[in-house]
Amino acid sequence: MIVRSLTLRGKRTRATLLAAGREAFEEHGYDAVRIDDVCARAGVSHGTFYTYFDSKEALFGEVAQAVVGEMFAASAVGPAASGDPYARIEAANRLYLRAWAANSRLVRMVEHAADADPRFGRLLLELREAFVRRGADGLRRLQEQGLADPSLDPRLTAVMLGGMVEHFAHVWLDLGERAGEQDAVDHLTRLWARAIGLTPTSTSSQEGP
Amino acid sequence: MIVRSLTLRGKRTRATLLAAGREAFEEHGYDAVRIDDVCARAGVSHGTFYTYFDSKEALFGEVAQAVVGEMFAASAVGPAASGDPYARIEAANRLYLRAWAANSRLVRMVEHAADADPRFGRLLLELREAFVRRGADGLRRLQEQGLADPSLDPRLTAVMLGGMVEHFAHVWLDLGERAGEQDAVDHLTRLWARAIGLTPTSTSSQEGP
Amino acid sequence: MIVRSLTLRGKRTRATLLAAGREAFEEHGYDAVRIDDVCARAGVSHGTFYTYFDSKEALFGEVAQAVVGEMFAASAVGPAASGDPYARIEAANRLYLRAWAANSRLVRMVEHAADADPRFGRLLLELREAFVRRGADGLRRLQEQGLADPSLDPRLTAVMLGGMVEHFAHVWLDLGERAGEQDAVDHLTRLWARAIGLTPTSTSSQEGP
Amino acid sequence: MIVRSLTLRGKRTRATLLAAGREAFEEHGYDAVRIDDVCARAGVSHGTFYTYFDSKEALFGEVAQAVVGEMFAASAVGPAASGDPYARIEAANRLYLRAWAANSRLVRMVEHAADADPRFGRLLLELREAFVRRGADGLRRLQEQGLADPSLDPRLTAVMLGGMVEHFAHVWLDLGERAGEQDAVDHLTRLWARAIGLTPTSTSSQEGP
DNA sequence: TATGAATGAGAATTCATTCAT
DNA sequence: AATGAATGAATTCTCATTCAT
């Protein structure tokens, strides 16, 4: 693997290889991907692959890193979002479902890789931690505002309800559980809101009469 | 692989191999297990393996079948359980957590195998379906009794809340999220109960007024 | 590589592979030999090779061991040899030349391998040590009998004169220095004998008056 | 590789590469040296290497040539040396030991390379020939002066005794045979002198009456 | 002259599976 | 039923060398 800083051409080749690898992993799964597949897709010889990556695993490592980064970025509810708690939860759930739709296969591959290689486990842990903290902070705020059940442990609750959304995304998008997006988001949000004892405010878009 | 029915000795050898395979898969993961490992553990030669199983995959198929069966059996709340809805949910959650603790690695392996082989997908689907149906039936009954929000789709809700428990089991037991069992079961149950709008009955052990 | 003790058939295959490897190394040198060459020569598939040997290096290790053993055995002057010191030296020199003729290429390969792998260095050291000790013991005996210069260090002298023979064997047999065997043995022996100040006994076959 | 004569800058780069190659070969051995290592050491890029050398082998060829030249030059007993035959032999032995100490690894590499490539064989032959001729001429002169056994074949004797020194140098310096330089030179010289029947002259520094 | 990206021939090794005994 | 020797497809990775810039 190359060490020195790359020229423009080198950077391009590396990026091509990375993209090709991502596609290949997504399509065929880690085991089924051969270095030569990636190279063919990228249009370079397999010697070139080793100019930029140490091994198939190293390539996957970079793909995983990218995917995890995207997952997190994609599911962040902007600060501009409505101040209404219910609406924020709803927006977060919708975003997560969509982010998952775009990356589910790869994320599951990272999860599997984590079984064998702690490096991937750490990557996943960081991602999960970010989500959990985000959820726990949100809940804590609601509790402080008297809008949510103060007896719930914020972290544990965030882990559980976040897990509900994550797991549903998997079941829905990967395992083919049938549901419309609107229905799915609605149910997830209602369950979440009610679970934490969210007190509807006047602007709430909750289930109505 | 032989077809005719087995002698007693044959049955024993087969069972030994199956147990050895299960242990090996559990310890090292699918890819890392070599047929030789299994045979060494079972104390038979390579050739013998193929007397009883068509392939490594076939062995794993049987292991998976067994695990899935155990998972389902282990997590069924007996009919003798208290009639109190909250208590039933609590019992189910506790049982599921424990069943998962006993089988998580193998279940995850089955999940991963399902990515590549639809046969395992089907197996998993059956398991999930049984859980979902059980959960949905329970909810429907509560709705009919006027004890749960009637506007919730029973199946979708069961998928989501069941997923919450399943996912938490994974996070807690495999990924090391710290929590005590009592706390975990309590939170899962409270979140679940409140999410479906479970109206406390007089015998409820819920958090009270 | 196989661990359990081999059946007759297994032993035969292993021996065939070992012989094939020895020939291949002898003919083409370590680097140029491919595992497949050895297998083709032995008439087995290359998978079979790995049933019996861990690697090309391991195979070479066994070949080296064998060659070194043969070298030592082949150059031992039997105790039955004439008691005449000069004749014994002469016999040893002749035997060494012949042993070298049979194994020079492989011995040189071991020498080269020793540069990279201390294991081979040790092997060679043992061989050399045996030769040196044999030579030193012989000289010491002659010194004690008053037949050789007592001021010479037996070990150092044995190393030097033994080296003379070893090196000449190489130059003569490998590098093509022209000489007849009789002449070669004669000169080596006369130089050796005179170098240690060997006093001719009455039965000496030395160069006469 | 370029053909036209080099600019000053070109010469410098070439020399740097040659020196880097020599060091690299000396440290790691032929096989283990990658062109990249040499280039990194020389501070130039891969491509540049091929501006000056046709191949790795060509580089080694030049290194070998240089080493062999140095070996010969370094071990020549100047004409100014004492006219005493014993002293001349002693001086030559000491010089040879020292020259070998400086170059043993590379010389052995050349020897090994000679097994596969006759070009290196020829190089070595020339070196050896020069030594042998020098030794044979010396012996012939002594024989003519009546100072050495006239029945010895000068060339054969030179090959053998020269080999004794060369081989001892290897054993002592590369294989770790323990001896002090003075002892080593003393023994080599005494054995050599007595082997050829060198008659001490009055000025001899030999071991006395 | 120098650079460094690209090439691809080449070899080692693993392990599920078959089959003769 | 059991054995274990034999098979060979499959894949990774290295590094000397070429060549466009």
Which descriptors apply to this entry?
DNA-binding (chains A, B, C, D); disordered C terminus; 8 helices; Tet_transcr_reg_TetR-rel_C_sf (chains A, B, C, D); homotetramer; Tetracycline Repressor, domain 2; 2 domains; Homeodomain-like_sf (chains A, B, C, D); Arc Repressor Mutant, subunit A; mainly alpha; transcription (chains A, B, C, D)
Kindly describe this structure:
Four copies of one chain form a homotetramer. With 209 residues, the first copy, chain A, is mainly alpha-helical. Chain A folds into two domains: 1-54, Arc Repressor Mutant, subunit A, CATH 1.10.10; 57-195, Tetracycline Repressor, domain 2 (Orthogonal Bundle), CATH 1.10.357. Chain A is built from eight helices and no strands. Chain A has helices at residues 8-28, 35-42, 46-52, 56-74, 85-116, 118-144, 154-173, 181-195. In chain A, helix 1 crosses helix 2 and helix 4 (56-74) packs parallel to helix 6. The longest helix of chain A has 32 residues, at 85-116. Chain A is elongated. Residues 203-209 of chain A have low confidence and may be disordered. Chains in contact: A-B, C-D. At the C-D interface, helix 5, helix 6, helix 7 and helix 8 of C face helix 5, helix 6, helix 7 and helix 8 of D. Chains A, B, C, D: Residues 11-71 form the HTH tetR-type domain. Chains A, B, C, D: Residues 34-53 bind DNA. Chains A, B, C, D: Keywords: DNA-binding, Transcription, Transcription regulation.
